[in-house]
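If you are new to this repository, start here. Below is one unmodified record pulled from the training split, so you can see the exact layout before writing a loader.
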Amino acid sequence: MTDQTNNGATSNEEAPQFSLQRIYVRDLSFEAPKSPAIFRQEWTPSVSLDLNTRQKQLENDFYEVVLTLSVEVKNGDEIAFIAEVQQAGIFLIKGLDAGSMSHTLGAFCPNILFPYARETIDSLVVRGSFPALMLAPVNFDALYAQELQRMQEAGETPTVQ
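And here is the target side for that same chain:
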């Protein structure tokens, strides 16, 4: 009997694996400091969005990625509301080289989490009796590339906590 290999790969090599285990809200907040007076004003909003990602290795090949969206909406000079969500996911990731792992955690996983965070923010805003707020899509691949360039210029290396 002869030994067979899959496409020339040795039996010691693992094929890359990626699996979404769970998506959940880690933290959530909503403030409308000027209500109810803000509802009686003409609505001319300006929206400010801040986003951040972080990741950490949980155990073995499991990673938690947290995408934080903070939205501040002003009506004129007054803050109408502040909404923040930390949308998190647990991912099984194995068999990737360091560069691919960094990209997966820094761009691919946040791309998966963003629609959930976006919907959560919109739901919060509507429940606060404000007009719906549909955030524009975010290009996490471009943000990741910018962060890599910044880190290279600063002499830093990407790490997973």
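Two things worth knowing about this chain: Helices lie at 98-127, 140-154. The first strand starts at residue 17 and ends at 31.
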